[in-house]
Amino acid sequence: MVQCAHRPGEADDETVICAEGYLFEFERRGYLQAGGYVPEVVIEHPELVEGLHREFVHAGSDVVLAFTYYAHREKMRLIGREEDLEKINRTALRLARKVADDTGTLMAGNICNLNIYDQADPSWEGRAHAMFKEQLEWIMEEGGCDFIVAETFFAFAEAKLALECVRKYAKGIPVVVSFNLKRGDDLIDGVLIQDALRRLAEAGADVVGLNCGRGPATTLPVLEEARRNGIKTPLSFVPVAYRTDDENPNMITLKDVDDKGKIAFPSDLDPWLCSRSQIASYTRKAHALGVRFMGICCGNASHFTRAMAEALGRQPPASRYTADMTKHAYYGTDPTLIDFNTQEDDETIICAEGYLFEFERRGFLKAGGFVPEVVIEHPELVEGLHREFVHAGSDVVLAFTYYAHREKMRIIGREADLEKINRTALRLARKVADDTGTLMAGNICNLNIYDQADPSWEGRAHGMFKEQLEWIMEEGGCDFILAETFFAYAEAKLALECVRKYAKGIPVVVSFNLKRGDDLIDGVLIQDALRRLAEAGADVVGLNCGRGPATTLPVLEEAKQNGIKTPLAFVPVPYRTDDENPNFMTLKDVNDNGKIAFPLDLDPWLCSRSQIASYTRKAHALGVRFMGICCGNASHFTRAMAEALGRQPPASRYTADMSKHAYYGTDPTLIDFNTQEVCKNKF
């Protein structure tokens, strides 16, 4: 572990990982507005900020970075909250200090670009000096920090001024100074990036480099050139998590994957995300170059920070949950696995799913086994994600008992915790549903023991469904039960029969995970399976998981054409599956077509929010009235679905307002030098 006494990047064999990206992550979670990008969440939900600090440390960050990025006077003025300026800064500093002290990590202060640099108006410098001064004085009054990150500067003049202010108002504190480089080799004041890095190093910056804007592929070459030019000062490598390239070196000009005439920034960037393998690869390349200060900026999430830490040979706490694919029901090699597997017409229910993948990304669940141990290890996090999904627009709190069945608990050696994990999950879901006035659903799922060659599977499956359903009823029941992700018609039919027997009177949604083709693994055609379940009395039938929106919706369209009157369920994964790979489990790694991307390198295949919204409207037009997103879901996708239906969930308070954006904005009080004309020419 890095010692607090060290300056960032000081020791040749030590690398400081500093997790960033708070703005984008809180926007995705539904607590921050794109456009203005002001960290109001610091004073509105300080417990969430503290939680994300802890999550990043859990994932491998050596630093707790005070969330004061864009908490400066110009940004607060733009949204009409200047009176909260000091409060937001002091609160952020105290939260960071608390978590750093609790976890034994470094604590960093943060100042950033002010978006007031203007070549035509020299008065910008005096105003900028005052803004840096007040933020730095608050840092020192709150007990100082281990170092300061001064970042995302588009102009050398502003970066130089920031460095001078740190030296004057935060004496003795080391400082990392970094640029956001748009298109080309020069900053917006005409200074070449290599000259800017050299001049900052000569002026006494402890670390210099790049952050934000550029992805790993277009950031690293700039640092390689700096090394060739003889810069000895430690370098900072903090790219965004997106796949920028020579045509679009900065994320701000990446194009929408469906409409090349439309800019993807900020809400439709998900399809451009790097994979974890790419993050790990660039981390190793940066380390080999001698970079000793690194992190991920906008687009970061815990799984990327962990990928970076593990690429350096570390084992942060989250590494306990590093994938063990030997336990996976279909790709697994464990010899005990089953071989056969290696409402009203105008009302729509949104049921947010995807807990397994989201907790794996956040570093509290292991890929492979995919067992929700987090329910009993960190119940407060499960309650928090329930609330986050409701905040984003989910009508349902789904008890997190997916894969909390006897077979899964056996495979990881925790059968003794089976009842505890189920009852705890049910109580957490009931608590949040009651608090928020939403529906509460129980959950049973595929058991991965179906075996055509061994009829005894049915008796064992009956026993497993029975015990989970009895726990649901003993814990007070639920509004409905979700029985899902069945690969075999026989298992889905058995699940329905068990619900009718052990949870009498409770409505049930039954859905399939369809692999390739039109038939399930027991040979029953999917259309026949949907029809037969409907005839057997399922309240809703459909598809969930496995397939993305593009390969799920046609199956439901055919069901409608076949005359099924029972309500349909549309709960795809948020990945861009297609006819060649209709199920996300066979999508290929973007760097290596011979390698399967599932489960850790699927990020580059994510849908955009616009795509989720478009398919939501198509499903609704088809008459689908039960929908959600399964594995890969996150709050911003649930919100996209809700808003596509014309709803305004609590998270819609933070729906993007690009009029306030420093470069794409139209607010007349923005500095002209920064807005659209410059953006077109320089990004």
Automatic annotation (TrEMBL):
Keywords: Metal-binding, Methyltransferase, Transferase, Zinc. Residues 4-312, 337-645 form the Hcy-binding domain. The keyword Transferase applies. Its cofactor is Zn(2+). InterPro entries: HCY_dom (IPR003726), HCY_dom_sf (IPR036589). The keyword Transport does not apply. Pfam families: S-methyl_trans. GO terms for biological process: methylation. One of its GO terms (molecular function) is methyltransferase activity. Zn(2+) binds at C212, C297, C298, C545, C630, C631. Pathway: Amino-acid biosynthesis; L-methionine biosynthesis via de novo pathway. This is Hcy-binding domain-containing protein. The lineage of its organism: Eukaryota, Metazoa, Chordata, Cephalochordata, Leptocardii.
